[in-house]
Design brief:
With 70 residues, this protein is an alpha+beta fold. Helices cover 24% and strands 33% of the residues. The radius of gyration is 11 Å and the shape is globular.
């Protein structure tokens, strides 16, 4: 999955596959988390959020099952 760089001090890049509803979040330390069953609308709101890291913490981090990829 290709990830897009974002402007955030805590998150380096974000990738999303709408067909499988997989979201990948690369943290600034290089850790990559993959979240499953994330609706397209949540991904859209994440990218549009004024503070991406805050939206991630409040709406994704503990809401969806995840696995560490790197």
């Amino acid at each position: 999955m290709e990830r897009r760089k974002v402007s955030s001090s805590q998150i380096r890049s974000i990738g999303y596959d709408g067909s499988s509803q997989l979201l990948e979040v690369e943290m600034s330390d290089g850790t990559i988390w993959q979240y499953s069953r994330v609706p397209t609308e949540v991904h859209r709101r994440l990218l549009a959020a004024p503070t991406i890291a805050s939206y991630y913490r409040d709406n994704i981090e503990e809401e969806y099952s995840r696995k560490r990829l790197g």
